[in-house]
Amino acid sequence: MSLEDHAEELASDLGVDKEEVRRDLKNLVEYSVPMDEAKQSLRRKYGDGGGGGSDGTPSSKAISEVSTDDSNVTVTAVVLTSGRRSIQYNGEQHVIREGELADESGTISYTAWDGFGADLEPGQTMQFGNAGVREWDGKPELNLGDSTQTSVVDETLDVDAEVGGEASLRDLEPGDRGITVEVQVLECEEKVIDGRDGETTILSGVLGDATGRLPFTDWEPHDAIEEGASVRIEETFVREFRGAPSVNVSEFSTVTPLSESVAVADDAPRMSIREAVESGGQFDVELAGNVIEIRDGSGLIERCPECGRVIQNGQCRSHGAVEGEDDLRTKAILDDGTATVTVILDDELTARIYGGDLEDAREHARDAMDKEVVADRIADHVVGLEYVVRGSLSVDEYGANLNASEFAESEDDPAERATTLLREVDA
What we know:
By secondary structure, the chain is of the alpha+beta class. The chain has helices at 3-14, 18-30, 35-47, 273-278, 347-354, 358-368, 372-382, 414-426, and strands at 59-60, 72-79, 83-89, 92-103, 106-112, 125-136, 139-144, 149-152, 177-195, 198-209, 212-218, 230-241, 244-249, 254-257, 281-294, 299-303, 315-316, 320-321, 325-335, 340-345, 386-396, 399-409.
């Protein structure tokens, strides 16, 4: 059934104007709301009043009172951020505006559709009448469209939020929109990907500031973004990449070179393993603990020459039977007493703890007629010792994995650390 058919059926059931229903339904579907959920939202909006007043008009609510059970509301709020993004629906490009609003009670995200919201400027206090409400990432979000009435309010609200979207990398979260950052480009490479319009060239790499480091993608490569440059990037949005925030630069972003270099933190934040795992992922983090085991798939391994995946018995999951290429890898279980994580060491870090390079490992395995001797030697060198590990942590249904960039034996005094921990417990 087409969108037109769904709209006609829904308008007939509810006894309301088909064109208005079609417009609202199209807006919701374009923002990836499943059709059944979108129709149910409109049934609440047009059918039962959706929490409005007794005369059918939307209720005026504080932001903290808005819930996913509402269909449409009226709120008065300060515009915190306003950013643009391009989406594609039914082969057509649409530019939407996204950001956050705030009043004295809290904040809420919004999406403004098809040109609506062009006059939303950070710092303005505005009333939004008949704003639609939908659920996004488990929270209510305002949808501003043709049926929404806006007006500038001559009122000052005491909001506990930053106006304008300027943020440090440490404070960014997936879902942030209209954000401005001042950063140094630490890594930058050009990639060609299969985009929705065919092959597309993008930039990807790592940004840094005094608070941390995060990955970025520039979907419309800007000349000012190059390795070593310090830049101010306005109107970015933040997505999740392997459990951590990732800065996204678009055709609407403004990138301005800075005359002074942005200072970048040398150290990664130190966290307990439990804290890091419960965060859902960290792009750059430091963990410390004891290596308690070397997992299968460590030592001298074989990779698929096509995709680089580890193969078993000459078989790649993607490419079938292949002639594998030798490599070194270590998968170590790190335990700090709060939780465990699998630390993955690349060929260089593995060679360092093994005590030899790839050719040494091949010779070792040939002499013993057993590849497992390489992993056994690695285990002899590291199991039972305490290490400080830095890298990128991802958490999924298969567990927590830290791709290590640094792996060094700890120089901390265990007795001193235990004493400090006991003091904290007693306090």
